[in-house]
Design brief:
The protein is an all-alpha fold. The chain has helices at 2-26, 38-58, 61-72, 77-103, 106-114, 117-137, 144-168. The N and C termini lie far apart (77 Å). The relative contact order is 0.13. One of its GO terms (biological process) is microtubule-based movement. It holds the Pfam family DHC_N1. This is DYH5 protein.
């Protein structure tokens, strides 16, 4: 029971750390007012990397051994652990899915940033079609919060492109 107690302490420390990561990932992002849509993709890529690393650690043999010892000892700390494991898996799946969908917009980021306003306008119908596809098919990204953020960033990029065009011309 002494070993079980020590292992439970370790799992409680992990639980606290994982909760902190989950809380931080849900906090509102602070971004510059003029950030473009590529920042959205970078955010989700970073989040995917963080949660995948966390999942890899949780699935490591060391952690699995500790969890199986605590299961054999019928530890009460495992309930919280299982909930957190599920939350991490959901967060990792969300980030992976969002990256996959946002990559479909990647081909528009260059023209949005570097083209003339006329060329940008030519890309708008297919860009909007792709955004609509994301909204209709993504199980995670189709919230008004995500869509508003994406449209804001697309608009920021278009404004920046037009300002640059006017100042250089």
């Amino acid at each position: 029971s002494e070993v079980t107690g020590k292992l439970e302490e370790v799992v409680m420390i992990w639980t606290k750390q994982i909760r902190q990561v989950l809380v931080e990932s849900e906090q509102i992002r602070r971004e510059a007012d003029d950030v473009g849509p590529s920042a959205e993709l970078e955010h989700w890529k970073s989040r995917m990397s963080s949660f995948n690393s966390l999942l890899d650690e949780i699935k490591s043999s060391r952690v699995k051994k500790i969890i199986s010892i605590l299961q054999a000892a019928r530890s009460k700390t495992l309930k919280q652990w299982k909930e957190l494991d599920g939350s991490i898996t959901i967060a990792a799946n969300e980030a992976k899915d969002n990256v996959r969908y946002l990559y479909t917009l990647d081909k528009f980021f260059g023209p949005l940033a570097n083209a003339s306003p006329v060329t940008v306008m030519e890309h708008i119908p297919s860009l909007m079609n792709t955004v609509r596809m994301i909204y209709c098919t993504s199980p995670y990204y189709n919230t008004s919060e995500h869509m508003t953020s994406l449209f804001l960033k697309i608009t920021n990029q278009m404004i920046h492109t037009c300002k640059t065009y006017l100042c250089e011309g």
